[in-house]
Amino acid sequence: MKRTYLLCMMLCAIALVSKAQTAVLNVDASREGVTISPTLYGLFYEEINHAGEGGLYAELIQNRSFEDEARPIRNRRFGENGEGERFGRRPLPGLIPAWVSANSEGAASKMEITTTNLLNKVQQKALKWSTAEAPAAIANTGFWGIESVKGDTYTLTFWARADKNYKGTLRVGLQSKDSAVWYAEATVKGKIGKTWKKYTVTFTPKANADYARFAMAADMPGTLYLDMVSLFPPTYKDRVNGCRKDLAEMLEALHPKFVRFPGGCFVEGMSKESAYEWKRTVGPLEERPGHYNANWHYPVTDGMGYHEYLQLAEDLGAEPLYVVNVGIWHGGFEPYDQIDEYIQNALDAIEYANGDKNTKYGRMRIANGHPEPFNMKYIEIGNENYQPNPREQSDHYAERYIQFYNAIKARYPEMQVIGNVESWGTDYPSWRNEYPVDLLDEHYYRSPSWFAGKYHHYDNYDRKGPKIYVGEYAVTSNCGEGNLKAALGEAIYMMGMENNSDIVAMCSYAPVFVNIHDKTWMPDMIRFDAAHSWGSPSYYVQRLFAENVGTTMVASEVKQTRRPKSSKFSVGFGSWNTEVEYKDVKLTIGNSPLVIAPDLNIKKGKWQVKDGVISQSTQTTECVAICPEVFDATSYDLTLKARKQAGDEGFLIIFDYFDEDNYKWLNLGGWGNTQHGIETTMAASKSTTITAAGTIEKDRWYDIRIEVRDEQIRAFVDGQLVHDITITTPDMLYANAMVDKETGELVVKVVNFDDVMIPLQMNIKGADIVSSTVALLTSESGKDENTFAEPEKVVPTSTECNLTFKESLYMTPANSLTVWRMKVKK
Ligand code: AHR
Q1: With a 6 A CB cut-off, is 46 part of the ligand 1 pocket?
Q2: Are 673 and 648 in contact (CB under 8 A)?
Q3: Is the pLDDT of residue 156 over 50?
Q4: CB neighbour list of residue 75: distance below 8 Å, 6 or more residues apart
Q5: Does ligand 1 come within 6 angstroms of the Cβ of 471?
Q6: What is the pTM of this model?
Q7: Nearest to 98 by CA among 242, 229, 286, 187
């Protein structure tokens, strides 16, 4: 209600705002541009951060087949009996991750791993559970808890045998963490004999609990053997061995047109053994060996296997896009002329997805419960395997690629084959060979400003070249754990992709999921634990764009005045993982040199002023101290001496400091003491403005001078000019427009990337607007995030707006994305 009111006010009012920064948006709906790719927005799903295991894959039991090894990792808490904490490479003997002896029934349970008389050849271990007295119980702590939902039906399956025929009864269900309360329980029907047998039991909780655990209690002493203990809640689309509902529904709300899977680095692995091999991931669960996800440090059951990925894509109404391993893993590879096995695996994977009953793998798919083909059309040859440096997982990529391409096209000419390009180290990745390719997969992990600056990135791409698939992109720096500013940077970049959707055919944000107990890679757009899930601001940008994608771009242009440079400024000092000293700081405005009082407003770091020397003595990132004096000028010289005492880098000299969200720094010896650069922070978003090779030595005083002449900046080190650059304020307002020919609507998107409101004059011609709705994503600060405590701090609000504005003034809120959807008279 409050937001609705505000929004209408913004539209109608000719408010009193600074005339300094204004913008005009002209839209002509009658001038059509490119057709928007119908597959533009999709998903990149990777098994990372427990995205699947303990996440989207609805299995609730951790270490269900007792194969896992307890592994410690630096900086991680090691839990009771290793529960849930199995990271790191070196296994710890003697612990059975996630399984504990529960004290609810009084008597003690003894749990051991056995490696004899196993369920089948694939299973390497089973649990031996002995009780000398009864009743006694064991419990599984799930993936950092198991949610108990009152009224839901949970399905338990497990395999068991006994030393002697077991005469007692097993009670199973969900228990409170302290074993005091059974939220759900049932008894296992049928006696447990000497040979392995599968048991299935269902139960329904009588109470809700966020972090319960699974328990099994025996009412008579004995020795039982257990394997493949599996528990599922109701799943998305009621699939057996399916997906967690809330998480899958969050994916569904993104209307994905394709799903790229299963990675990412997960495809590559860290060795031949830990690389993804689809054939190990299909068929009965107890016959899947699982493998160690070495890239992201946890074991996977592969219960969410190749078939389940295809099924998920189908259930989401999306095209599957499978990424194959090209015989390269992190740290090693097969010789490029000995990769037939990998090519055959790719061909077999296509046959599994698309083959009929007359094919070996088509038959296998049918036996696994999917009679119709999945009609897979996209296959990607490798993940990030075409860096210029062959040692970066890129040995002979082109030679590998063409072998896959030829083999695939010979048998499946309709398949769209996707090639790798450089995934890091350049903003302009390229296909550096003559081989045919349908799409190229670009990856960008950068800062909010980088994305905001790339609105025009695709404007000049060669239209005769292959189509572009931006398979992984996300703001990953200067963004907390994923804030609104990051999402807005991505939104501007996405508008650029829409504008160029004739060449950019597909894109997918990365990564999708993080279990908050395993934040290996942040940010991610969907966060969750055992009982909660919520979206980041980026999630909502993805959703708003996918909901409002339209069919055809129409002409739009933004004219804006730039935010003028403030004449008020301070100066300051900083360091990054380095201990430094500064002295003789002088500021000259006109002809009057001022000695800067060594007085500091400390933001971070251990700063001290002694005998006129300012020192910072910790080796942590982003140590900053600002001089409190505020000056008034747009031209000045700042001179000082600086000495490095220890650490990784050099000096940070802060100038044009307006506030903590708007300033510049000269970064000498930055980027691991390899570059001298100038970085600009504007509207809380930092970007690298210029760099040149340069290092800083220890234990010597350097003379540094920064000359500021309005927008022109010159920096000198020991009298040598290192930078001479004009830094203009970037555009802060971005927009585009499109029509949806199916619904007869006009969609206009506007992003204000600035920290201040920008008045926007909107002029729309070529369409008779009948009514409109507007969705607004904003918050008090660009730094706002959605957290466990405040999961909905930054979410969009939608409003009916019966305005038929052809010309109107919109007070574009600071840090906002606005999407107008207008019904147009035919
Ligand atoms: O998305 C996370 C990782 O980033 C992916 O595994 C990889 O492809 C990229 O380096």
Answers
A1: yes
A2: yes
A3: yes
A4: none
A5: no
A6: 0.90
A7: 229
